């Protein structure tokens, strides 16, 4: 049977491709297990300085495989809290905490958990024909995979509520206009643009990029004053890093050789 994920590492870029195109790359148990292994491999591989996530076929990811969720009359419904605790939440934490940039190339529809996995990446590029759907409300669920945190942070509460409660399909171009994603690009240019961005980021000072992520992620929990303190602490680390020392010794305009925290 086909591998539910494809995984490769080249030029410092780890590339993960969701590979169940016949069900729009929805997550079943095997795909979750593979993802867990691959994310661990990515973390352990010190040659990796950027991660690119994309999907195979016409969809990016339709979230949970709902054929695993049918309940026969008289049977008890599965514990979805346990599913989040054991599968989705560790995956989302792993993406969020990667000590280097994560890029998502949304090649087609991203629905349910699929939308929120994409939006948890640092930089989201989407094909012009792609779309985002918070499909949860249609089946009586709440946005998960970090959606209730990510959406208001990205687009504000009014739009987050509209998306989460109406479950409408949001075209990639609107997502770009709303600031929900970095950019949408022509379909045929998506993979090349995403890969070239990932390759570029992999040549940059990775430690500094990881500290930028940390500061920005903390911002929604912190007051302005707390954030100033955090900037002080992280800038202290950044300023004493090898990358910054080399950049100062040379010239700000010179390329900086990157270093990575393990
Ligand atoms: O359960 C837990 O563990 C808790 C976690 C929950 C996280 C979640 O993600 S809940 C939300 C789950 N996802 C959805 O509700 C989305 C369901 N899919 C759709 O609404 C539509 O498929 C799309 C809007 C995404 C795309 O529509 P369209 O018309 O482009 O394609 P389609 O014809 O609906 O789908 C194509 C095929 O993919 C089709 O199979 P077939 O008929 O060709 O054999 C369809 O059944 C299959 N497919 C699509 N989504 C899923 C799926 N199969 C299983 N699970 C899916 N989620």
Description:
- With 262 residues, the protein is an alpha/beta fold.
- The protein has two domains: 198 residues, 2-enoyl-CoA Hydratase, Chain A, domain 1 (Alpha-Beta Complex); 44 residues.
- The protein is 44% helix and 16% strand.
- The chain has ten helices and ten strands.
- A six-stranded mixed sheet has the order 1-2-3-5-7-10, with helices on both faces. A four-stranded mixed sheet has the order 4-6-8-9.
- Strand 1 and strand 2 form a beta hairpin.
- Helix 4 crosses helix 5 and helix 8 packs antiparallel against helix 9.
- The longest helix has 18 residues.
- It is globular.
- The two termini are 34 Å apart.
- The model has no long low-confidence stretch (mean pLDDT 95).
- Bound molecules: ligand T3D.
- Ligand T3D binds next to helix 2 and strand 6.
- The site of ligand T3D has 24 residues, from helix 2 and strand 6.
Low-confidence stretches: none
Give the averaged pLDDT, no decimals: 95
Major β-sheet strand ordering = 1-2-3-5-7-10
Please report which band the strand proportion falls in: under 5%, 5-15%, 15-25%, 25-35%, 35-45% or over 45%: 15-25%
């Amino acid at each position: 049977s086909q591998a539910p994920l494809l995984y490769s590492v080249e030029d410092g870029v780890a590339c993960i491709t969701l590979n169940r195109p016949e069900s729009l790359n929805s997550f079943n148990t095997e795909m979750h297990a593979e993802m867990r292994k691959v994310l661990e491999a990515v973390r352990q591989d010190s040659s990796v300085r950027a991660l690119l996530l994309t999907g195979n076929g016409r969809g990016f990811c339709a979230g949970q495989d709902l054929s695993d969720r049918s309940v026969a009359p008289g049977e008890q419904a599965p514990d979805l809290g346990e599913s989040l605790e054991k599968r989705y939440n560790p995956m989302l934490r792993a993406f969020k905490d990667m000590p280097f940039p994560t890029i998502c190339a949304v090649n087609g529809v991203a629905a349910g958990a699929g939308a929120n996995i994409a939006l948890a990446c640092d930089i989201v590029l989407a094909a012009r024909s792609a779309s985002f759907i918070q499909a949860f409300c249609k089946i009586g669920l709440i946005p998960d995979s970090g959606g209730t945190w990510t959406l208001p942070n990205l687009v504000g509460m009014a739009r987050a509520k509209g998306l989460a409660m109406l479950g409408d399909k949001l075209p990639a171009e609107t997502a770009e206009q709303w600031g929900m994603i970095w950019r949408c690009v022509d379909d045929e240019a998506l993979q090349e643009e995403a890969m070239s961005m990932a390759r570029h980021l992999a040549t940059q000072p990775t430690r500094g990029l990881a500290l930028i992520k940390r500061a920005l992620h903390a911002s929604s929990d912190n007051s302005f004053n707390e954030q100033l303190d955090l900037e002080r602490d992280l800038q202290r680390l950044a300023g004493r890093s090898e990358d910054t020392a080399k950049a100062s010794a040379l010239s700000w305009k010179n390329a900086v050789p990157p270093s990575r925290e393990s």
